[in-house]
Amino acid sequence: xxxxxxxxxxxxxxxxxxxxxxxxxxxxxxxxxxxxxxxxxxxxxxxxxxxxxxxxxxxxxxxxxxxxxxxxxxxxxxxxxxxxxxxxxxxxxxxxxxxxxxxxxxxxxxxxxxxxxxxxxxxxxxxxxxxxxxxxxxxxxxxxxxxxxxxxxxxxxxxxxxxxxxxxxxxxxxxxxxxxxxxxxxxxxxxxxxxxxxxxxxxxxxxxxxxxxxxxxxxxxxxxxxxxxxxxxxxxxxxxxxxxxxxxxxxxxxxxxxxxxxxxxxxxxxxxxxxxxxxxxxxxxxxxxxxxxxxxxxxxxxxxxxxxxxxxxxxxxxxxxxxxxxxxxxxxxxxxxxxxxxxxxxxxxxxxxxxxxxxxxxxxxxxxxxxxxxxxxxxxxxxxxxxxxxxxxxxxxxxxxxxxxxxxxxxxxxxxxxxxxxxxxxxxxxxxxxxxxxxxxxxxxxxxxxxxxxxxxxxxxxxxxxxxxxxxxxxxxxxxxxxxxxxxxxxxxxxxxxxxxxxxx
Length: 505
Prior knowledge:
Immunoglobulin-like; 4-stranded antiparallel β-sheet; disordered N terminus
């Protein structure tokens, strides 16, 4: 019923086209996860796209050239070079934005719970627990930027903590504030440079000032960037006086730019010949600009969905990745890429991959669905958000932390354990055997494939060594669970191990 209802709504919003090219491309109204932007109506040309379904049955659209996302074997070895950790119990729906400020990690998306507590579309992780950010906002968050003690948030919302803000807002650590009259429509990306805040999206005015898809807030007023762009903005990055912008546009200030452009404070410039397709992500490191999206060429150079601009020409990153790039994070010479792909550099890498300047590497066993946000810090830790439930052997619920094996030592509560189930598949139950480190209290949890907790047992602090517990295939109330796949999670204070159990009955 859920899928049918959503599909009917979608067909009401986007009418089928009779011929290619008679209506704007469907790509113009898709978010990075392939969903139709909220509130969009009209007819669009679906040529080159196919429809699939998200985790809640919602229709999603991907390009025909994208690889099929078949489920990955749970424990398939993918060149482990670190460990994935959950952040508490995560959140209860998709994460589209991540920003790190000191020891705090802010995540935004379309969830309403973080760590089991109410948090409307934005939440803060302090390293131990989740908390709401001023009551949150009334629509999904698509972008977060940090500047000092201020947090700038953009998305599909009109109110923040009860304040009318119109798609962009500032959190000062204690309360929400509007940026003048806000934007006229959705904000997809925000970047901050000094006292200037740059916002890009699908709007054509900001604070009542004509501003085509991008605008600058100076702390008091909104300003256009020349004549702006001819279509939507998905990504912004600032380096000194230069503002780099990516999206679905082909013109900037009347200059042909092809999906990526540079604003120097007074005029727009192309970056070579631009790209062959939409740009969803931009990151700047020194004189290098990294761009990711759906393109297969950059400045005429073959470059599969990710490329580097050195100030004068474009360069591929090896053979790139085989599906859309939604997010890029750079730390030193390391580039972390998240998106909707299954391979990087020709080798398996599910939705997240690491480029070290010379070659691509997988990050752990796998991430089981699309990645929309990445943030890297100098220690080599990478925060990732998206549509996934599992990362490596951890059940993480839409947000996770990657800790490399070298240079980073886990805290005492994060020592590794092991967890196994036998028999598996199971008919009447299964023995869960595991190793305890003896360092922290342990909990066993079992989730269904929707991420719902169906069974839990607090084990306390167990002596270091092997232990076993029989699970009878019943839920918390004692009723037998339906046949299917279940995920078992063992954890303490960051301690992670996981296994997949199949109940056959």
